[in-house]
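The instructor's notes for this session suggest beginning with a concrete chain rather than abstract definitions. Hand out the sequence below and ask the class to guess, before any prediction is shown, which regions might be ordered.
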Amino acid sequence: YRVNYCSTLWSSIKSILKSNHLAIDVLNRAQIISDAFNFARSGSNNGSVDFKYSEIFDILSYLENEVEYYPWYAAIVGANHLLERIG
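After discussion, reveal the predicted structure:
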């Protein structure tokens, strides 16, 4: 199940990830990354935020402080799919 929030909530999530990512559970951080990649990949907004890859990279910028496996795994899987598409 994927959740696409309104732009205000996505901005809040990005802010929390950058200021104190530990405030969000590790599995939820991984899911946020996975969801963001999948929303950009789908190209549809379903009435919510229309994700661009630039927004994903903004979300991923918090990873410089991430030490847990699952968020990094979600980022690598999403990036690998993107690399396969652009060849």
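Then share the key points. The radius of gyration is 12 Å. Residues 69-86 form the longest helix (18 residues).
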